[in-house]
Amino acid sequence: MTAEAPPAATRPARPRGSPWGIAALLVFAAITWWAASEEFGIGFDVIQLATNLTRGSQIIGEFFPPNWEYLPRTYGPMLETFKMAVIASALGCGIALFISFLASRVTTPNPPTYLVSRSVLNVIRALPDLLYALIFVAAVGVGPLPGILALFFFNVGVVVKLLSETIDGVDTGPIEAARATGANRTQTVRWAVVPQVLPNYVAYSLYVFELNIRASAVIGIVGAGGIGNNINTERRFFNYDNLSVILIEIFLFVVVIELISIWLRRRLV
Amino acid sequence: MTAVARAAPARPPRPSTRNRWLATTAVLALVVWAMATAEIDLERIASLPEGIGLLFYRMFLETGPEWSYLPDAVQGMLQSIQIAWIGTIIGAVISLPLGLLGARNVSGILGSNVMRQILNAIRAVPEVILAVVVFIPMVGIGGAASAYAGTLAIGVHSIGTLGKLTAEVVEGIDPGPVEAARAAGGNTVQEQRWGVIPQVMPDIIAFWLYRFEINIRASAILGVVGAGGIGTSLEQAMTFSRFPRAGVIIIVIIVATILVDTASGWLRRRIIEGGAGRVEEVEITGMSSPLRMDGDAG
């Protein structure tokens, strides 16, 4: 065998840009132009933004100093917000646990049931929390009740989506084992699936609770109870120093709840 | 040697369920307390199904939805989509550098912590609140100004959420290409451009699309507080009790949202699956990220 020198490595050809990539860029540019244009879209304009920013800094200036004398008047609504979040999370997560099993192929092999629950889920998820609040305020009047209902639907949407996807990904071994011992459908779910997804379910529930604190601050703006009511009133009268108290309070509340929730999740999962 | 019978292995003790029971009891107590003190009349709860049923009847059944309003509703929805689109772009463009700075392997422990806290603070304020207290007073209400306020609110909020996710993805990269870029004489910017960006871009673009889906919902509600888009029409229809019109608007919102979700979801899957050899990583982010992202749907 003769030792032949290997040929010098030629530089590989540059990969060609995919036509899909170029097409995607063009579509992106077209949509952006359409959305930003004065004629068809929202008339977005960077120069105008700069003028507005100076005005914005003026308004933000009015937030300071916060009017701390207003603080005691927010305790009641803040507590209401907290209660609304607790009730809506409990009800929403409770119902969602059952619906999730219907919305996963693993636990619901029956196509019609699965498809129906998936479609219902998609419709529920398509409406945002504030729209639910608006609808329920129209249906049952103002107060915490429409707020709880709005949060409830919002929670069911989020938890069922996350949990059904978790159920889709469970280890099927225990399911087979349960079936091999003669378990029926309910028993299989109870002993083979629930234990696998329970930590995730608890994590999702805590997470939804966090969301609710933030969301309930928002839905109050349309009359659905809690601290949002105060935001609405104060902004009507341009009381920016009171608004900044509310904002600081919500911010701290959200951060504290988040810290507790993260700590709990870490212990549980 | 005598054959000693080995003791049958003892059954392991049942794991303690004390903590679980404590936690369950605490949660139940909290819920019961909230329900007992929430000042909700039982009478109103009893009249709930009737109230909701009546509203549904008025919206969709009594005279049927007001289909003549459909073109206006579609117009409003398109504006909401435009607000979401531009808002997402603002968020994406600004969050990319901020997200890089928020990653420990790019800007060090101190720098990344500071940036993360800034992003967290931005994230903590919902779009609606941003619109109501900052951007609507800033640019005013009515016509183009409303849409403008909504766009800015969505853009700023998206900076927080997208920046956080970007930072997390960047922290998960393979350090090899970055070292290679450095070994080849690349400066800091070149390291990011050639060592980091190509690795993280598929995930980040998927996040952007996901954020767009969430922002559509957000922009649909921003109109309720006067920040442009379809929410304004819905709010007015509700205020003036024009329920058949509200019915049409709700149908348009649901259909448009599902359509955009489907298109965007398809695109996201294509983008993520397009990067061969990244499947495991994607599964990991896929597990945790919807959690954090949906988070800001509210």
Annotate the secondary structure layout.
The complex is a heterodimer of chains A (269) and B (298).
Chain A: H1 19-36, H2 46-62, H3 72-102, H4 111-126, H5 129-140, H6 144-168, H7 173-180, H8 185-219, H9 227-236, H10 240-268
Helix pairs in contact in A: 3-6, 3-8, 3-9, 4-6, 5-6, 6-8, 7-8, 8-9, 8-10, 9-10
Chain B: H1 18-37, H2 42-46, H3 48-61, H4 70-101, H5 104-124, H6 127-139, H7 144-171, H8 176-183, H9 188-222, H10 230-239, H11 243-274, H12 279-294
Helix pairs in contact in B: 3-11, 4-5, 4-7, 4-9, 4-10, 4-11, 5-7, 6-7, 7-9, 7-12, 8-9, 9-11, 9-12, 10-11
Tell me about this structure.
The complex is a heterodimer of chains A (269) and B (298). Chain A is mainly α and 269 residues long. Chain A folds into two domains: 32-62, no CATH class; 71-268, Orthogonal Bundle (MetI-like fold). Chain A has ten helices and no strands. Chain A has helices at residues 19-36, 46-62, 72-102, 111-126, 129-140, 144-168, 173-180, 185-219, 227-236, 240-268. The longest helix of chain A has 35 residues, at 185-219. Chain A is extended, with a radius of gyration of 26 Å. The N and C termini of chain A lie far apart (63 Å). The mean pLDDT of chain A is 83. Mean pLDDT of chain B is 82; it is low at 275-298. Chain B starts with 17 loop residues before the first helix and ends with a helix. The longest helix of chain B is centred in the last third of the chain and has 35 residues, at 188-222. Chain B has one domain (60-297): MetI-like fold (Orthogonal Bundle), CATH 1.10.3720. Chain B has helices at residues 18-37, 42-46, 48-61, 70-101, 104-124, 127-139, 144-171, 176-183, 188-222, 230-239, 243-274, 279-294. In chain B, α4 runs parallel beside α7 (144-171) and α5 runs antiparallel to α7 (144-171). With 298 residues, chain B is mainly α. Chain B has twelve helices and no strands. Classes of the chains: A mainly alpha (269), B mainly alpha (298). At the A-B interface, α1, α2, α3, α4 and α5 of A face α1, α3, α4, α6 and α7 of B.
